[in-house]
Amino acid sequence: MGQSLVVSAAVSEDNGVRAIELAKSNWLSCGSLDCYSSSPGVLEVPDLHINQNLCIPEDQLQWSFARSSGPGGQNVNKVNSKATLRWSPPADFIPATPFNRFKRLAKRYFTTEGEVVIQSQEYRDQAQNVNSCREKLKTLLIAALTSPKRRVATKPSRSAIRRRLDDKKLNSDKKRTRQAKDLG
Fold first, then answer.
1. C-alpha distances in angstroms, 152 versus 97, 144, 149?
2. How many whole angstroms separate alpha carbon 79 and alpha carbon 126?
3. Is the separation of the CB atoms in 63 and 85 below 8 Å?
4. How large a percentage of the chain has pLDDT more than 70?
């Protein structure tokens, strides 16, 4: 079992970017995460933008880190690279229908308290695992916001029905001619 490392969010805000003060100062390699470091030990992560109208502020996302069981060689025993994202969606975050769709799509990530917990340990780098958690949440919310297409009921045309019945008749005749004649 790995020890959990919790980050605390600072309240400094510049253009929608919140600085996250890290408990470990060696976590600064961002990988593909859209973040930057302004000073040692501080990683600035932008809010999670779902679409043009929807954004999750970074201070609503709670991060914890633990030792990963994934790749990393000897490094896997020293670095807390597994990222765990906890998010409690507010009641008025999205309308009821998309939220119900989100609960159905993400039911494996919901706890009994209604909190979303997403983990990632597929990468050796902690920042890449953070980005993976953010992308999983974003993908689930985008899928929930798009309404499914309604199925348009269709029926076969008259000629298709006629062709199907003619084929059935041909098959029936073919099988009847193959039957053994009763000589008795």
1. 21, 21, 9
2. 8
3. yes
4. 70
- Order of strands, edge to edge, in the sheet holding 61-66? 5-6, 61-66, 82-87, 116-120
pLDDT in tens, 59-90: 888 888 888 776 666 767 777 888 899 999 88
With bands split at pLDDT 50, 70 and 90, how would you rate the model's confidence at 58?
confident
d(CA 63, CA 117): 10
Residue 126 CB-half CA count within 13 A: 25
Burial of residue 41 (CB within 10 Å: 0-12, 13-18, 19+) is middle
The CA angle 27-138-136, to the nearest 5 degrees, is 65
Answer with the residue of higher pLDDT: 18 or 172: 172
Is this structure's pTM higher than 0.70? Answer: no
Which DSSP string corresponds to 101-169? HHHHHTTTTB-TTS-EEEEE-SSSSHHHHHHHHHHHHHHHHHHHHSPPPPPPP----HHHHHHHHHHHH
- Choice between 119 and 92, residue whose per-residue pLDDT is larger: 119
Q: State the Cα–Cα distance between residues 126 and 130, nearest whole angstrom.
A: 6
